[in-house]
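Input.
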Amino acid sequence: MNFGSTPGWPVVLGDGPVLLRPYRRSDAAAWSEVRRANQAWLAPWESSPPGRWDELNSPVAFRYVYKDQRRQARRGEGMPFAVCLSESGRERLVGHLNLGNIVRRAFCSAYVGYWVDARVAGRGIVPTALALVVDHAFGPGGLHRVEVNIRPENGPSRRVVEKLGFREEAYHPRYMHIDGAWRDHIGYAMTSEDLTAEGGLLARWHRLRTAAS
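Output.
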């Protein structure tokens, strides 16, 4: 698989049962099943073109998503990951995480977006996936800053970044058109210096989970 010369890409990342990898053409059916099953869970938080959810998230639609992801990766503008759960020798696609809008040179920054199947929510999959990607971004990915923008009403997503220690830095009125209107967002961020004494974000996350158990 050749995505071009983007630093740190393509790559497979993993921790325990959580596996992140580039998408494959063969993911179409699994991606569509998860997306269609999670319409009520995902639609209020996502920007999407006009159309029916089942059509926008069909196996045919996945072909266009896949091509767009490859194009971003080739240009060095994104690192799209299929988030998978590997259990009992089976790999199951359960979500998505994208390191997008990558800007190099003096900025060295990117935005992160993610979603997870509601049927496996609450199992630490997204915090683990985000920690893996942030560590990769600050290491082989050559980035300095990672940002996440979340609607104020999206409590589960905000809890993910807050428990990992992302700073709340800004409030963006009417930031993005989602679910029929321009929606406010809260801006969170983290830089590589924030993790210098932590041994990485994944190490921080492991300590947090151990302390809570």
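Residues 127 and 160 are 6 Å apart (CA to CA).
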